[in-house]
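Data deposition worksheet. Section B asks for the primary sequence of the deposited chain exactly as it was used as input, without tags or linkers unless they were present during the calculation. Section C holds the resulting structure in token form. Section D is free text for depositor observations; keep each observation to a single sentence. Incomplete worksheets are returned to the depositor.
Section A, Depositor: J.P.
Section B:
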Amino acid sequence: MALTTLDAKTALIVVDLQQGIVALPTAHSTGEVVERSAVLAEAFRRHGLPVVLVNVTGGAPGRTQEVRNTGDFPAGFADLVPELNAQPSDHRVTKRTWGAFTNTDLEAYLREQGVTQVVLVGVATSIGVESTARYAHELGLNVTLVVDAMTDRNADAHINSITRIFPRLGETGTTQEVLDLLERSHA
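Section C:
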């Protein structure tokens, strides 16, 4: 589904654009993902809309077939990239699971702000972004996924999320489409 509108109270959620993650090999340039996410963050701030910056500092416990880090990451790994130009007004969320809602204050913060729609960007498409989008959808929020402002370590997983999963969770669009909607609906 193409982008149709942005609610009066829409928040941008930037998932895991942090030093350690953007340094990993990905299907698409993390530089472009960071650049587009930074442009969106600035536009949301300019329009007085909430910006949520999410980072991850560990992994959830439990057995998996794939080897993963369930403890703390190395120093500097979780630091947000400077290009996001984090502001004191931005809400920060530190997570230890894939999604930004589990065991964090994100749901309470969005409710307190009166948010009815979230716009998601970040890394990884099939993990942090998708998990956060699923939870937001289950909460009844309108979900918008900016597909040119996200990437994944696995190209097939990225394509699966944006073509098969995301259309069932919300609307998908590009950075420019979101910026155009912001200008039209929040001028």
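Section D:
Residues 146 and 174 are 5 Å apart (CA to CA).
The chain is about 35% helix and 20% strand.
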